[in-house]
Design brief:
Elements lengths: L1 H19 L3 E3 L2 H25 L1 H6 L4 H16 L3 E3 L2 H27 L9
Antiparallel strand pairs: 1-2
Helix pairs in contact: 1-2, 1-5, 2-4, 4-5
């Protein structure tokens, strides 16, 4: 159940993305579900290999090269999913950053409430 909820949260984040980054287009909720699924597989299978292969550059840039890897994977998924388009590398770069921020924010709200932490209690 948690996996499906996470998938839907990522799809909602993808649907919100064109409103923030104008050169990214998402055709429908179904397309967002497909893109979220493919991005999840890419991040689970291909991204670790890319991070390992580019480890010297990542260390040299103090980890900021990870943002380039995320952008390239985001752009790659847009190249073969119909209904999802990205205007170029910089659009993919900023889109990947904004997508992760939106996904994080929505996940915090949804899963915080599902955890029972959203019950109105104040923690210091």
């Amino acid at each position: 159940m948690l996996l499906i909820a996470s998938w839907i949260v990522n799809a909602v984040a993808l649907l919100a993305l064109p409103y923030v980054v104008r050169s990214i287009e998402m055709q429908s909720f179904y397309t967002a579900l497909v893109v979220a699924l493919i991005l999840g597989f890419m991040n689970a299978i291909i991204r670790p290999a890319l991070v390992l292969l580019t480890l010297p550059v990542t260390v040299l840039t103090l980890g900021t090269f990870i943002l380039v890897i995320n952008a390239l994977l985001f752009w790659f998924v847009a190249s073969f999913v119909e209904g999802f388009s990205v205007g170029g590398f910089w659009s993919a770069f900023f889109g990947a950053i904004v997508y992760s921020l939106i996904s994080w924010a929505v996940s915090t709200v949804v899963f915080g409430v599902l955890d029972g932490r959203g019950q109105g209690e104040v923690r210091m």
